[in-house]
Design a protein that fits this description.
The chain is an alpha+beta fold. It is about 15% helix and about 25% strand. The chain has one domain: Mannose-Binding Protein A, subunit A (Mannose-Binding Protein A, Chain A), CATH 3.10.100.
Length: about 180
């Protein structure tokens, strides 16, 4: 997994209770099934999309790419802090990363300002628990098939996997801390 550092200094660690932010890749829309999509490319889209200024450690797309690079493993893979999960302006989405994965959200990604109302769905290629869903990953990111989508209007497990869609022109949900 390629991680993108967004802050000053060389430390990738954050305080244990630091806040995790969810935000949109903004106007950066990716063809998630163009055959060349990589973790590095979607992470770069998140950085260019405008991570909140409070993020000084790591930025990554809220997407699974394989069984060794999946949303459910981000706590370890990204060394996520145990603090709250919020939208870009601080609106509480979940009490913790664990609560987010369990589908216990306090606000939807859209009402928290983390995702645009006009987009509603974001690609995750994940099951409802955040594990990789190889049945809905644009056929291994080759451009065919469908991608599993999170639903930005939900406060439950559907926020991670609530629909499927074609693999073209998707706005990415991102996280950072």
């Amino acid at each position: 997994m390629v991680l993108t550092s967004t802050g000053c200094g060389s430390s990738d660690s954050a305080s244990e209770n630091a806040t995790i932010y969810l935000f949109s890749s903004g106007s950066t829309s990716l063809n998630v099934g163009n055959g060349t999509l990589t973790r590095s490319a979607v992470n770069a889209a998140c950085v260019s999309g405008g991570a909140p200024t409070a993020c000084t450690h790591k930025t990554a797309a809220f997407m699974s790419f394989s069984s060794s690079d999946q949303i459910s493993g981000f706590a370890t893979q990204l060394s996520l802090p145990s603090g709250t999960v919020v939208g870009p302006t601080g609106t509480l989405i979940a009490d913790s990363w664990t609560a987010l994965l369990q589908g216990t959200l306090k606000a939807t990604p859209i009402t928290a300002g983390a995702f645009p109302v006009s987009a509603t769905y974001y690609p995750t290629a994940s099951n409802a628990d955040g594990s990789y869903n190889s049945s809905y990953d644009c056929t291994g990111w080759t451009g065919t098939g469908f991608v599993g989508m999170g639903d930005g209007t939900q406060t439950n497990h559907l926020a991670i996997y609530g629909a499927t869609a074609s693999c073209n022109g998707k706005t990415i949900l991102c996280l950072c801390y």
